[in-house]
Predict the 3D structure of the following.
Amino acid sequence: MTDRRFSREWLLSDAAVLFYLALLAVAVHVLSCQNYGYFRDELYYIACSKHLDWGYVDQPPLSLLILQIVRSLFGESLVAIRILPAIAGGTIVFIAGLMARQLGGGRSAQVLAALSALASPIFLSNAGRYFSMNAFDLLFWAIGGYIVLLIVKNNSERLWLLFGIVAGLGVMNKYSMGFLVIGLVVAMLVTPHRQRLLSKWFWMGGLLGGLIVLPHILWEIRNNFPTAEFMHNVTYLKNRPISIWEFFLAQFRDIGIIWFFGFAFYFFHKPAKVFRIFGILYIVIFVLMAFQNPKPYYLSPVYPLFFASSGCMIELLARRSRLGWLKPVAFAAVLVQGIVAMPIVLPVLPVETYVQYQQFLGLVPEREERGAAGILPQHFADMFGWPEMVDTVALVYKRLSPEEQAKCMIYVRNYGEAGAIDFFGPKLGLPRASCTHNSYWFWRPDSWSGEVCIIFGRSNDTTDCFNDLRQFFETVELAAFARCKYAMPYEDGRPIFICRGAKITLQQLWERDKLFI
């Protein structure tokens, strides 16, 4: 009888409700994950996971180690590689609710915090839509923020050891975890929490984190800091220029509006004065990021702390006689935001229906990078065209004689094209792709005779591509075009050439075309 009563009580408890919301978040991603195709970066990540190392040009190694384990155990299907990011998204939902509880919030505050993490457009997008380091980055920030919350609330200094481990693993997943560490230290320095900097546990935690990151640092030194070159190029050559004001406004578009109540909680709710460090932390991180020409979503990992505090603040305000309406309005706003945003950020609609939905809302595919946008926004467009492109390359390859096929190098222009050929190509008899983009640059072929090469044009301008390639090959033949109207514009109509008689060595080609961006 006691066990049954206990079970019933738990099934209706605050923790159970948070668990249900977390399961809902996982289900949303799992049920939609097969609707389109592999994302460009996923194909690249799969290739990287086959070349395990302590670092890569554009990222640290942890997420790729995770992917290699997943591939070894469960295969490479869309469900297999996307299930862990989906679970990470569900865990973030649960942690947001736990944060609200630690801040003193009741059930409504906890549920509103968890629901905000579930329905926020950028969390719907990055916490499970496809395999990437972003989903795990959000999770490491959430876990790290929760640990600091416990330290601040309970003076649990020994937890700095756990925070150091989480921060170290977080940096080994994505460098942005460093912003949390920097923001935290600065926020501690300007608040009474500065005394915690004298704790031996704080420094021991920092040492643990440093030891975890050390192998990657040594890899960067050994390879002449390729990531520094990559990050410079991304900031100044790839990302679309964005003003600080635009960066700020994008937070409301991507996150929602009720998170702003969290500032009132941290700065104006007197019983929460001890937690003001989190409000200052946000300001520090915002300033650090805003001056680096960022994409707006870079700031998103900090928001679970503000979903939690906003839930608490709205719960407190709703207790006032004239503000009782605030709670249902907040819940409604979060739900409507999630329902409207879901088809925009997740592949829940057939692509033709999505285009109609986009037009109905009056939306134009946004550019976060400098390239032109197509029919679909990039986060969907990069899920289309890869099998078709590889099929086209296979047809071109089969036109070569067996002797030429044995000597042929397939040379492409970016890691998405290379990853697609390496993923889909073996079943069609294609050799692995060669490419100088990011980490593919390190995987240069051992040798190449220069007699024959299938090459993707640098752009969709066929004449320009001819003029470029004729400088380096005796003969240049236009063989085909890669076509997919839903792909990114620079992939739809990409010319594919058969080139013979190279005037350039493999070493010269690699030096000429090196591209870290």
The longest strand covers residues 473-482. The chain has two domains: 9-353, 386-513.
